[in-house]
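[Amino acid chain]
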Amino acid sequence: MELLQQAFPLNEDQISFYAKNKFIKLKNVLDAEVIAFYNDVISKKVDERNQEETPLEKRNTYGKAFLQLFNLWEHDSDIKNLVFSKRLAGIATQLMQVEGVRLYHDQALFKEAGGGITPWHADQYYWPLETDKAITAWIPLQQTSLEMGPLEFSAGSHAILEGRELSISDESESRIQEKLRITDFNHVIEPFDVGEISFHSGWIFHRAGANTTQNMRKVMTIIYMDKKMKLKKPENDGQLNDWKTWCPGAEIGKEINTPLNPTLF
């Protein structure tokens, strides 16, 4: 698909908006044809690889939030074309104002019909990365109404240190929500159009509501990092697991340059 390799230039206002708020939503990044194609391809791969057997009602809050499958690019050439897209990686590079980006990993996040909330959290709690130059592209594979549980952001909340030590949990939902309640950060809750994609920094606090519809909320995510990113010493079990899983062979204090972390732009 040629569109995936075509540039998507950003203007100064968009770059400034991201710098201030550490998230941005961009319309018409992909067209309806591309979204429909990847809805089909990624859905089939998730069905094929999903091993979740516990009924929804018997799972904990994290388990009710979504089905998640990682690095699908390794298992399907069409998905690899999306994950390696110059268009998307170029946007990430422009937003972070870096020379280029590497892949950290990809992740399908499918919130089932009746699935619960995704609690407030910051992604970089899990990432053993030396700087904050990391960003996630959140790509809905269908029009996503408020009832489906789209991503919500606390604009500018990357400035808050309290709550960064929390994994995704009931505790993170309640403690971060209380902290945000007494601040002036704008809570952004909006639906997503077909082809609209959000990009958010690793330290911005975000969440998603429950899926109260009868349809699966299908989302593909791609996490990028500065191509010069170095591995830091893990500070928790999540970061230790990420090092071994997504950056195998990388050395603490050195650039993350492994076969799983190719330069994409």
In short: The radius of gyration is 17 Å. The chain has a mean pLDDT of 96.
